[in-house]
């Protein structure tokens, strides 16, 4: 127990010392309870998650997904997030979760924190989209990602993938 230290442990009250005999100064939301302890209620502002894209970027990305799917007659999907330690395995698992559409699907999985891009094609999609086309798409995405344009990179990658289909 420290002696001589009359400062309150609450950061909001830390800078206000109280002299013996003086009535305590309270801020709104503070009260003395029956045991003599000071109870304090503080307003907590919720921290809202920030989204990686603006509404405009989301609309552009959605349009790119629709146009790529229509022009190539394949189903394109995008995953953005952590892929874990086995990035390829996780991307393949995500692709497989497309169910009955997986054979005709192409998944672009991007983990910005890991600096990883994986392109997974289903068996039917792989017959129409050569590895060379996937590499070109990844290169176009990476160059935009390096410039700090995540949405633009994904959009360019989808356009490139669609253009490379046979």
Oligomeric status of the shown chains? single chain
Radius of gyration: 28 Å
Low-pLDDT runs of 5+ residues are 1-8, 10-17
- Named at the architecture level, the CATH assignment of the largest domain is Roll
Binned strand content: 15-25%
Distance between the termini: 78 Å
What number of structural domains do the residues give?
Answer: 2
- How many DSSP-defined strands? 5
Series of H and E elements: EEHEHEEHHH
Under CATH, the topology of the largest domain can be stated as Diaminopimelate Epimerase, Chain A, domain 1
Mean pLDDT: 85
Task: Please characterize this protein's 3D structure.
- The chain is an alpha+beta fold and 166 residues long.
- 39% of the residues lie in helices and 15% in strands.
- The strands form two sheets. It has a three-stranded mixed sheet with strand order 3-4-5, sandwiched between helices. It has a two-stranded antiparallel sheet with strand order 1-2.
- The protein starts with 29 loop residues before the first strand and ends with a helix.
